[in-house]
Amino acid sequence: MSEPVINERERQAALSLTKNQVPIREWWFKDNALLTFAFNTSSATVPEGERFIVRAAADAKKLITDPELKKQADILIHEETAHAQMHDAYNGYLDAQGFPATKHVQETKVLLLFFERVFSLKMRLVTCMIIEHFTNTYSKQVLDIGVLEGEDTDERMDRVWSWHCIEEMEHRSTAVDLYRALGGGYFLRVSIGAFVSVAFFVAHVRCLVDFMTAKKLFWNGTIWKKGLPYLLGKKGVYYLVLKYWLTYFKPGFHPTDIPIENRFNKQLHHYHIEDELVGYFNVPVQ
Length: 286
Prior knowledge:
The protein has helices spanning 8-19, 33-61, 67-96, 101-118, 121-145, 155-170, 174-181, 186-214, 221-232, 237-245, 274-279. It is mainly alpha-helical.
């Protein structure tokens, strides 16, 4: 039986902040602007990416006969639909903070709709695999390294990203398994995967630069000096993303090849708390 919350103490703390209308502070991660930017820019690309995955998984499900894989596709579709709903609210909060989130949501939508028009179903599933691989490497950092743990991180944002990462772990293999079930091979996986990787890297960096520019912080040396260790250090977000990103291009790669140690004992199973999380963003902004 699934526990309905990730952590009761964290849940009560987050609900108390929301009930008392405490704003989510602008730099909600340890007052560190750069890593806060890194997570916020990821949110701007999430909703349309998740909807793209839902459509591709639904199309692939029609062509397979394995009942277990169909069940896994249903879980993927449910969870990604919930993620899109929650990140729509998250991005509304970012817009209210003065970040151009909706601009980048729309740009991501245009890019993915283009892929949908010109790509075959297998190519669309490769795109899903790349998106999922990115979120899986993020998830490993949240669950294994505990990058968001600590009293100086807003409890609501910890729960938002922990929930997202836990569910990503639950369905991390589904896009790959659907691709294989439809006869997808290595060459298509790595060639389209490399192309889509570059496209998403450019989109993410553009969003990061736009967010920093909106706050007139791009040329602020103190922000970079304080934040770069969290991005490029040995336990940095981008350092570890690159480290595990390259495993995708190995022959025979499967998401389960990347071990999840779950050092912070997050409960790794299905949750239905998206409505609670959406409510976190119904508070005034700073």
